[in-house]
Amino acid sequence: MDDLGSSEELAFTPEQVESMLYQVITQVIGQSVYDDAKVAQWVDEINDRCMEMLVELTKPFKYTVTTFIMQRKGAGLHSSHSCFWDMATDNIAQANWPNDKHRDQHNNRMYVVVTVFAAAMTK
Amino acid sequence: MADDKNGGLEEAYVFHEMRDEVQRVGEGAIINVLEGRSYSADKAAKWSQQIGEEVVEGLRGTNENFKWVASCTLLQRVGAGVHLSSSSYWDAQKDGSVVLRWENDSIMCILLVFAISL
């Protein structure tokens, strides 16, 4: 009845992870405006909390979490990820904050991008 | 007897043995794509993709013991503050990463390369 090893539970689901990433971002940034003295701390805190949350999922994956915060000054930004891995199991979850669904309600004057790379363990 | 073509790169099973090679491939790709250029909103997306692809192609061809991920971010330099941090949950003995930064007057490039052992 309880199929503990069901493939759904063991798969990495970007949508599920992405909504958790947005939660972490809003928890850490809250109403703060970009502050050079605190950004280093925010970046580490977002990274740590996201990693804790991923490990708690107890799925058979190795993870890399990258957190990027940029002050909003009109600079252009482009980012791309190229991966050589197993497309059936491995995936990326990315949160670009703010966006249409997660608005910047407090004029925080910064962009936050959190990227999770999940690679299935092969052994 | 004559099989050691790349100075041992093909046989590496742990990342730290290949760190220098990864760095070399990464730097080569960045310079190849960006040297002499100024930031262009139209082309930056294509450049970041080209760099990432060149790095992954270069590394996977020489070593099949790893999964490879290259993440390339290009920023226009306007004096904005930027912070980037990365953490990994993996096999500390075998897996590894390299971070490369490159800049000129108008472009800042941050390239992260991760190797995850099979």
Structural description of this entry:
The complex is a heterodimer of chains A (about 120) and B (about 120). By secondary structure, chain A is α+β, with helices and mostly antiparallel strands. Chain A has a single domain (about 1-120), classed as 2-Layer Sandwich (Ribosomal protein S3 C-terminal domain), CATH 3.30.1140. Chain A has helices at about 5-10, 15-30, 35-55, and strands at about 60-70, 75-85, 90-95, 110-120. A 3-stranded antiparallel β-sheet of chain A has the order 1-4-3, covered by helices on one side. In chain A, helix 2 (about 15-30) runs antiparallel to helix 3. By secondary structure, chain B is α+β, with helices and mostly antiparallel strands. Chain B has a single domain, classed as Tctex-1 (Ribosomal protein S3 C-terminal domain). Chain B has 2 helices and 4 strands; from the N terminus they run ααββββ. Chain B has helices at about 20-35, 40-60; strands at about 65-75, 80-90, 95-105, 105-115. Chain B has a 3-stranded antiparallel β-sheet, with helices on one face. The radius of gyration of chain B is 15 Å and the shape is globular. Chains A and B meet through helix 3, strand 1, strand 2 and strand 4 of A and helix 2, strand 1, strand 2 and strand 4 of B. Chain A: InterPro entries: Tctex-1-like, Tctex-1-like_sf. Chain A: It comes from Phaeomonas parva. Chain A: One of its GO terms (molecular function) is dynein intermediate chain binding. Chain A: This is Dynein light chain Tctex-type 1. Chain B: It holds the Pfam family Tctex-1.
